[in-house]
Amino acid sequence: MPLLHHLDQGQGRPLVILHGLFGTLDNWQSLARRWATEADLRVISVDLRNHGRSFHSPEHTYALMAQDVLDLFDHLQLGADTTLMGHSMGGKVAMRLALDHPERLAKLIVVDIAPRFSDMEHQDDIVAGLQAVDFTTCTNRQEADAALAKYVPNMGTRQFLLKNLYRREDNTFAWRINLDVLAARLSAIGESTTSTAPFLKPALFIRGGKSDYITAEDKLHGIPALFPHSQVATVVDAGHWVHAEKPEEVFELVKAFALS
Asked: Any idea where the AB hydrolase-1 domain is (predicted)?
């Protein structure tokens, strides 16, 4: 497989960032720049397969996505002092890599996702909205937004999704994501993370106070079972996109943990 598209900035201890479903490395750029410049970290932001500017593939499993990231580690010659952070789907990729290859990491950060099964039914409207955009007639961003709005009323969510819109060389629009494959693999994207052996290094789980992706049960049982040296930090008044809603709090949490 080709190498994942990534952005490498700063110098110091490595921090690798993996975005969530329908996201791109761009979602993390303002924070990534700050960690590189203000926290003296080497920050590598990644586009996962079937997302952003990375390659498209008919396969979309956590085992393969973790291997993609591992291949990038090898290419960049990242050492065992690396902190790996992932949000949502990217968090499950990060957990998979940490559990399978603990020797490659110093620390793990997971943003608003638990190891258990995640019901992906709430993504159906988003998929329907993305599929409803007719690129044979769509001539600008506003028309794409109007088509999306019939299925996705929340403007913030639409702005996040529209980051995937780009203009091709023939001047028509398209999605950067591999929408057909992601739509077909939604249930697999929600699958639980399991392992015969726990990850015995430090792990930080950051949850949004208004999000239900990490529950009290996850905090008490599900997370410690696989990550016994973990802590869960709750960002008050934040939903699932914690880093977009409360960037200052996430900046400080990650900086303190990665440098400790």
From this structure: 14-247
CA angle 25, 31, 37 (to 5 degrees): 115
Where do runs of H (alpha helix) occur along the chain? 29-38, 62-76, 89-100, 124-132, 141-149, 155-162, 179-184, 186-189, 216-217, 223-226, 242-245, 247-259
* pLDDT, averaged across the chain: 96
Q: What is the pLDDT of residue 157?
A: 92
* Cβ neighbours for 38, distance < 8 A, ≥ 6 positions apart: 255
User: Which amino acids are annotated catalytic?
Assistant: 88, 180, 240
- Beta-bridge partners for 203: 108, 230
Best CA proximity match to 177, nearest among 75, 54, 88: 54
- Calculate the alpha carbon distances from 11 to 3, 84, 111 in Å: 21, 16, 23
pLDDT digits (tens, 9 = 90+) for 219-254: 999 999 999 999 999 999 999 999 999 999 999 999
- Hunting for tokens 């996109």 — which residue is that? 241
Higher pLDDT, residue 114 or 156: 114
166-204 per-residue burial string, b: 16 or more CB within 10 A, e: under 16 = eeeeeeebebbbbbeebbebbeebbeebebeebbebbbb
- Residue 121 has what pLDDT? 84
